Amino acid sequence: MIQLKQTAPNFTLADQTGQTHSLSDYKGQWVLLYFYPKDDTPGCTTEACQIRDSWSEFKMAGIVVLGVSIDSVIKHNKFAKKFDLPFMLLADEDKKVVELYGVWGEKKFMGRTYMGIRRTSFLINPAGEIAKVYEQVKADGHAQEILNDWKALSS
Asked: How far apart are CA 119 and CA 104, in angstroms?
């Protein structure tokens, strides 16, 4: 798992429109890099829609939002359109970035063990360093938690 104060590893992925983005493109800005298990599922929809509903606050704070899952560009496009998401959803179909950030691993649900993305977020400062790591994120309320922490960290 990536640690606090560590430089965030760079990567390049396609968003829901097929446009590629590198983390290094956003150096000099705050970045919320959030990893989520799957498009259009209850928890992931709650998390994405709460970020959407707080979008004006994220924009005013200058926070770039990058959501990452292993879903395809096409699935991301449908999810973004269905819920009118104003931020980028990046497709990590080959699992390189989820593995790089240490968020791919064993999960348990209803007695079943399987491999998947552990809902995790990283708040990255303008110097490109991890300012805050959120493990075992609870989808409901996460957007406001990020904004509150940003206020504390940026002042």
From this structure: 9
Low-confidence spans in the chain with pLDDT less than 50: none
Determine the pLDDT at residue 58: 98
Give the chain's end-to-end CA distance (angstroms, integer).
27
Tokens of 16: 């829901």
Record the tokens describing residue 23, joined without a space.
């983390």
99, 112 Cβ separation under 8 angstroms: no
Strand partners, 119: none
Q: Where are the domains of the chain?
A: 12-154
Q: What is the pLDDT of residue 122?
A: 97
d(CA 120, CA 37) in angstroms, rounded, equals 10
Fold type of domain 12-154: Glutaredoxin (3.40.30)
Q: What pLDDT score does 5 carry?
A: 82
Tokens standing for 40? 């259009």
pTM, full prediction = 0.95
Please count the residues of the chain: 155
Q: How far apart are CA 114 and CA 110, in angstroms?
A: 11
Catalytic center residues: 44
Q: How far apart are CA 99 and CA 21, in angstroms?
A: 18
